[in-house]
Specification:
Helix content is 42%, strand content 18%. By secondary structure, the chain is α+β, with helices and mostly antiparallel strands. It has 2 domains: 179 residues, no CATH class; 81 residues, no CATH class. The strands form 3 sheets. Strands 1-2-3-4-5-6-7 form a 7-stranded antiparallel β-sheet, covered by helices on one side. A 3-stranded antiparallel β-sheet has the order 8-9-10. It has a two-stranded antiparallel ribbon with strand order 11-12.
């Protein structure tokens, strides 16, 4: 079993130690009356590299690159300070969504060989994440709620609790030291995006739509920065790509700038701008 120790240094920085290895867990931050942890710093080796996963996932490994970059791209990207209470991974999987990306991710993680070392009190039973109690398994999530899981990961938002720091430390250390963990992140993230793209294509009539258009609609949906009527209006405009790219620019200027830069680079290298979404195959085709 992995034993976690941690310290608060330099006023707001938490550092952990597992198996004698010291590492950064995250900074203590405040946001809209909440307090939590944030970790968006790391090395190039700790970031999502689409070239490493293109052999398995093809064009989808490139398709997700701008969104991943906008989300931080670090496999240990951490946020426990907003209403989601616990988000993690290179695409910031959010734990507050029932059957969402984080839930699917943790279910898959708990099948890995090192799972009992990091989370000996968790298991998957009947397709649900459960805590192993003294007398019975206690489900932490359902089709309608992840409240139990949120309490397990981050008991509250009024302050940074020891539990929150320890659970975050386990995720950070595990993903930094286990390539199977990183593979699960990518596999779950791309499966989630592919499934969502099919739903978005049906909702917004994107059958035959250019890959750049689909990427922006998927990114808007992933971040949740606009409702359906705004997306519909942008798609109906004379220049859908430009209109979609402007959505949220006032509030999320840095993200929009990142998307614009990364999409431009992918177009220049001949990766984007050459495919269209085919709803029948749920894939992009030349």
């Amino acid at each position: 079993m992995k034993v976690v120790s941690f310290s608060l240094e330099q006023g707001n920085r938490y550092f952990g130690r597992i198996d004698g290895q010291r590492f950064a867990i995250g900074r203590r931050v405040s946001y809209q009356g909440r307090k939590g942890l944030m970790n968006v710093s790391g090395t190039a080796a700790q970031r999502y590299d689409r070239s490493q996963f293109r052999g398995q996932h093809g064009f989808w490994a490139d398709f997700i690159h701008p969104t991943a970059t906008a989300e931080g791209a670090l496999f240990h990207t951490l946020n426990t300070y907003d209403r989601a209470r616990f988000t993690f991974a290179f695409l910031q999987f959010a734990a507050h969504v029932p059957n969402g990306d984080f839930v699917a991710y943790l279910r898959a993680l708990l099948q890995l060989p090192l799972a009992p070392e990091y989370f000996p009190d968790l298991t998957v039973s009947g397709g649900r994440i459960c805590r192993i109690g003294d007398d019975a398994l206690v489900p932490l999530e359902s089709d309608t709620s992840t409240d139990g899981l949120l309490d397990y990961l981050n008991p509250g938002s009024a302050e940074v609790e020891d539990t929150e720091v320890i659970q975050a430390a386990k995720f950070v250390h595990w993903v930094q030291n286990d390539p199977l963990h990183r593979q699960v992140q990518v596999d779950v993230g791309l499966a989630h995006i592919r499934a969502k793209m099919r739903r978005l294509a049906q909702r917004y009539n994107l059958d035959g739509a250019e890959d750049r258009i689909c990427l922006l609609v998927a990114d808007i949906s992933h971040q949740g920065r606009a409702r359906a009527p705004v997306i519909v209006n942008a798609l109906a405009s004379a220049d859908p790509f430009a209109a979609l790219l402007r959505i949220g620019e006032d509030s999320f200027g840095e993200r929009i700038a990142t998307l614009r830069r990364e999409i431009k680079a992918l177009v220049a290298e001949g990766t984007l701008g050459l495919r269209r979404y085919d709803l029948a195959s749920a894939d992009f085709v030349p």
